[in-house]
Design brief:
The complex is a heterodimer of chains A (266) and B (270). Chain A is of the alpha/beta class. Chain A has a domain of 186 residues: Rossmann fold (3-Layer(aba) Sandwich). Helix content of chain A is 34%, strand content 23%. Chain A has nine helices and nine strands. Chain A has a six-stranded mixed β-sheet with strand order 5-6-7-3-8-9, sandwiched between helices. In chain A, strands 2-1-4 form a three-stranded antiparallel β-sheet, covered by helices on one side. The relative contact order of chain A is 0.18. Chain B is flat and about 75 Å long. The model of chain B has no long low-confidence stretch (mean pLDDT 89). Chain B is mainly α and 270 residues long. Chain B folds into two domains: 44 residues, no CATH class; 211 residues, MetI-like (MetI-like fold). Classes of the chains: A alpha/beta (266), B mainly alpha (270).
Chain lengths: 266, 270
């Protein structure tokens, strides 16, 4: 089983994770998302790319019940986003880590175990302890550091560990590496691929960067702006095992070039 | 050319003179000692009568000889100020929590809070003494009233200082209002609360003393009035010094607690 998914996770039959059907989102008469229809399988890694104002973040927010749609239906693991949120199926990683500055790294990771637990019927907890999760993101020994004592990349890794603590079936990442320097970003890209393979979580990853979108995703969802709508959904035909040098392959360059062209048309 | 030479020689001189690093407490202590010396010498040289302006040594001997009087009047003021501090700040914090959760309550009550704050404390004090009598209650209320407003304003600001991401995180975690209050909003407000408590630490003493001026037979405020009327100026100065020490002590305690509680860097708060 694990061998099969290692070789070609793309071809394995999977259940539907997210089904978005003719969905509209409006903020005060401004149409942000226009007629979005999309189906994502369990365990997929989808990156979302598009010009600013195309509603990339809004798409994540409507899936996680942070905003509500004005028309259309969304189902997350067969449930409404609200119920998926209440069941803790969803974890969110924000652009600026959103750590609580008075809590240590470890205490920040434990936060989801202390909040909103009462109303949650089937709380799944990661078999890895918070300490092990911190180790997994490479922060062993920094458990007791306060956020201001950590670098931007480390803070974001704490946020990722925090997102994994409840073993989410769906991980939503809103430009999590947008504010980091390129070296840290490359490193975290490799890390997030590894974590994805290790956990089998479905990931929706918003980014501004074409190489990041190609490197991470199995499929790239390209949105266009005003109003935000799907431009194209592109299969990334790259091997499942990717390392930083994958970026220099002709196949990678070809896909990136195609995305850039599509982005220019937006 | 001459200027250039000058600059060069200045630089050279700076390099030669190694600066002696003084401890941080040195400068303020030196200033205080210098002022005390100027005061002592000035009063003696110009022959100023003691009942108009006593020399520091006169005040010191008053503190020594009238120590029992000072201490007897110190404790009532201490208790009034401390109770006023707790009552005023507790109400302010509670009200701030209600305001943050209920905007319509804030809209209804905030103008009233501003109005109460605009009335000079010296004008309300007699009214409160009329209502609550000469005892402890009136002084505690006056002291609480003077602490109340800065804490209310700061606390509302602190509770609302929580970043949008942190609130979104709370929502994704399906956190309850209570959990968001206790685990996110209140800790985030602490730096703002302590800023307000530092103000309150000194103003609560002012409130207690003003209350005693209006009507009291014991307390530092009463002693100040009594000493003034009886031309016991060194005792007056000693009483003023004691009030100031009381406020400094409160301020010091608040600062110590703040250092204990707030270990994170408030500049990193978003």
């Amino acid at each position: 089983m694990s061998v099969l998914s290692e070789v070609a996770p793309e071809v394995v039959e999977r259940n539907v994770a997210i089904e978005i059907d003719q969905t509209f989102v409006d903020f005060d008469n401004l149409n942000v998302l226009n007629d979005i229809s999309l189906s994502i399988s369990e365990g997929e890694f989808i990156t979302i790319l598009g010009p600013s104002g195309c509603g990339k973040s809004t798409l994540l927010r409507v899936v996680s019940d942070l905003v509500s749609s004005s028309k259309g239906t969304i189902s997350v693991f067969g449930k409404s986003p609200e119920f998926a949120r209440r069941d803790r199926d969803i974890a969110f990683v924000f652009q600026d880590a959103a750590l609580l500055p008075w809590r240590t790294a470890l205490e920040n990771v434990k936060l989801p175990l202390e909040m909103g637990v009462k109303g949650c019927k089937n709380l799944h907890v990661n078999e890895k302890s918070p300490e092990e999760l911190l180790e997994m993101v490479g922060l062993k020994g920094r458990e007791n550091a306060l956020p201001h004592e950590l670098s931007g990349g480390m803070r974001q890794r704490v946020a990722i560990a925090r997102a994994l603590v409840c073993k989410p079936k769906l991980l939503l990442m809103d430009e999590p590496f947008g504010a980091l320097d390129e070296i840290t970003r490359d490193w975290l890209n490799v890390e997030i691929r590894r974590i994805w393979k290790e956990t089998g979580t479905t990931i929706l990853f918003v980014t501004h960067s074409i190489p990041e979108a190609v490197f991470l995703g199995q499929r790239v969802l390209m949105l266009e702006a005003h109003p935000g709508r799907v431009k194209e959904l592109i299969e990334v035909e790259l091997p499942a095992d990717r390392c930083l040098s994958t970026r220099e392959t002709t196949q990678f360059v070809k896909i990136a070039a195609r995305l850039r062209k599509l982005l220019e048309e937006c | 050319m001459a200027i250039a030479n000058n600059v060069n020689s200045n630089v050279a001189m700076h390099r030669k003179n190694k600066t002696i690093v003084l401890p941080t407490w040195f400068a303020p202590i030196a200033v205080v000692i210098a002022l005390l010396i100027i005061w002592q010498v000035g009063v003696r040289v110009f022959g100023v009568p003691t009942f108009i302006a006593p020399a520091p040594t006169d005040v010191a001997s008053a503190i020594a000889s009238d120590y029992p009087i000072l201490i007897n009047n110190f404790w009532p003021t201490f208790v009034e100020a401390l109770m006023g501090f707790f009552v005023g700040n507790s109400i302010a914090v509670a009200l701030a929590i209600i305001f943050v959760h209920n905007k319509s309550v804030e809209r209804a009550f905030f103008p009233l809070a501003v109005f109460v704050n605009t009335i000079p404390i010296l004008a309300v004090a007699p009214i409160l003494v009329l209502i609550f009598g000469n005892g402890l209650t009136a002084k505690v209320i006056i002291s609480a009233l003077i602490c109340f407003f800065p804490t209310l304003v700061n606390m509302v600001k602190g509770l609302e200082s929580v970043g949008k991401d942190a609130l979104d995180l709370g929502r994704v975690l399906s956190a309850t209002q209570n959990e968001i209050l206790w685990k996110i909003r209140l800790p985030a407000s602490l730096p703002y609360l302590f800023a307000a408590l530092k103000i309150a630490a000194t103003t609560c003493v002012v409130g207690a003393i003003v209350g005693e001026w209006v009507g009291a037979d014991i307390g530092l405020g009463a002693l100040i009035l009594d000493a003034t009327h009886n031309f016991r100026t060194p005792l007056l100065y000693a009483a003023v010094f004691a009030s100031s020490m009381l406020a400094v002590t409160f301020f010091g305690v608040v600062t110590l607690v703040e250092r204990r509680v707030i270990k994170w860097n408030p500049r990193n708060l978003r």
